[in-house]
Specification:
The chain has 10 helices and 12 strands. The protein has about 350 residues and is of the alpha+beta class. The strands form 3 sheets. An 8-stranded mixed sheet has the order 7-1-2-9-12-11-10-8, with helices on one face. Strands 3-4 form a two-stranded antiparallel ribbon. The radius of gyration is 44 Å and the shape is extended. About 10% of the residues are buried.
Length: about 350
């Protein structure tokens, strides 16, 4: 691995000679500029406007133009001799909890390796102290033409230096989030949490891959072989608004679970049960109408009503009741007492 920077970590009176190595690398399909009509390579030339000619890279320097139009030329030697304490020293300023550094500030990461065997023990001391405390070290470092704040932390038993941007380089987020008052119902929050838990099951970050690079390589291969370029099927336009948030969450949860009701499935079932519970009383209404006819047994009172109309009708009703072994409702109590001895005899 190629060394990016050489210097010393200053930890109080402890000095650790170290080398920095780039910890990340970006992989992509190399593309260059060509003339669209004939495919000819388009190259960028270093052209001097004053002499009107191309100049070699060895004669290139950096310059600064002042507001009044004057230009100051700065060579690599000028930049290398800047009076910066952090040019060759990583000075540990403080130790803080990792949560105190906003992730927006993190930039490029470098592995920290020892420069010689004598640095092994102080290196291990700083690494183990950071691991045991659960903290990170805040430092400053000058890399190339820029000084940056940085943090020292532990990754896979190795010290990592991660450069940061300055706090005032983080843009404010005012006015971006919705400013109006939005009420989130407990049911919606519960469903969202259930969806989060379902999507997080068995997630492995190492299995992610770059679909864009793979698709680009397929197009390049198709062009080289002279075959039809593969196209992705149109999945339709995504909705630009959410009409029913609960329904969207419920459908997302079902899709994430693959139709299986496990874990947060009970939330889906309860939500659907609540939705189906409303029309239930309407379905019971016809049942009440059908249940009324059995309650018409008060029809037995008709003989009593007829008895009020005339004695002959009451006598006929009473005689019929005696013949059948039944009595009208008006005489129910008395008839039971009189008929009991007859049945016994």
């Amino acid at each position: 691995m190629q060394t990016t920077w050489k210097g010393t970590i200053s930890f109080g009176l402890v000095s650790i000679p170290v080398h920095l190595y780039s910890a990340t690398q970006e992989h992509d399909v190399p593309l260059h500029q060509v003339h669209a009509t004939d495919g000819g390579r388009v190259r960028m030339k270093r052209y001097c406007e004053r002499e009107e000619k191309e100049v070699p890279y060895a004669e290139i320097a950096k310059g600064y133009e002042s507001p009044d139009g004057r230009t100051v030329t700065l060579s690599d030697a000028d930049l290398a001799d800047l009076p910066l304490p952090s040019k060759k020293i990583i000075d540990v300023l403080a130790f803080v909890d990792e949560g105190e550094i906003d992730p927006l500030m993190f930039s490029k990461a470098y592995y920290v390796g020892v420069a010689d065997k004598a640095a092994a023990k102080p290196y291990a001391l700083l690494r183990d102290a950071l691991t045991e405390s659960g903290q990170i070290a805040v430092t400053k470092i000058a890399l190339r033409t820029r000084e940056s704040p940085a943090v020292l932390r532990v990754h896979d038993n190795t010290l990592v230096l991660q450069t940061c941007i300055w706090p005032d380089e983080v843009r404010p987020a005012a006015g971006i989030a919705p400013e109006e008052d939005v009420t989130v119902r407990p049911q919606e929050l519960k469903m969202a949490r259930s969806l989060m838990d379902t999507l997080s099951e068995d997630f492995d970050l190492s299995r992610l891959h770059d679909d864009y690079q793979q698709a680009l390589q397929q197009v390049i291969s198709a062009r080289l072989e002279g075959v039809e370029i593969p196209h992705e099927e149109d999945g339709g336009e995504a909705p630009d608004n959410v009409i029913d948030l609960m329904e969207a969450l419920r459908s997302s949860l079902k899709q994430a679970k693959g139709g299986r009701r496990s874990g947060g499935g009970s939330d889906v079932g309860s939500a659907e049960a609540e939705a189906e519970a409303e029309p239930a009383p309407r379905r019971r209404a016809p049942a009440k109408k059908n249940a009324e006819p059995p309650a018409r047994k008060p029809a037995a009172r008709k003989p009593a009503a007829k008895a009020a109309a005339g004695k002959s009708a009451a006598d006929r009703t009473a005689s019929k009741g005696d013949a059948a072994g039944r009595t009208p409702a008006a005489k129910k109590t008395g008839s039971r007492k009189s008929t009991a001895p007859r049945k016994a005899s």
